[in-house]
Amino acid sequence: xxxxxxxxxxxxxxxxxxxxxxxxxxxxxxxxxxxxxxxxxxxxxxxxxxxxxxxxxxxxxxxxxxxxxxxxxxxxxxxxxxxxxxxxxxxxxxxxxxxxxxxxxxxxxxx
Length: 111
Description:
Layout: E1 2-9, E2 12-19, H1 31-49, E3 56-61, E4 64-68, H2 74-97, E5 102-108
Parallel strand pairs: 1-5
Antiparallel strand pairs: 1-2, 2-4, 3-4
Helix pairs in contact: 1-2
């Protein structure tokens, strides 16, 4: 199962942790793993190319994508929240469609 956790605080989403394998299909042909991977990678890449925010990558290897958003201006944060909300929506849709293969949680960060 893929476990996806979006982290947030009072200012909005602050990072993401995605780990595991869905087990939906054979390795290399697993559409659920591919969908989660493309959502996560597109979000990370767009944070940099669209928002000008370089995410702090904590892990990026097979079966793991983990990143945090560094300090950012209000304008950067507003843009980042749109992308992070799109990531949340995509992961939520997958978790709803494939509940045995994807689990999404939202975790509150306390400062």
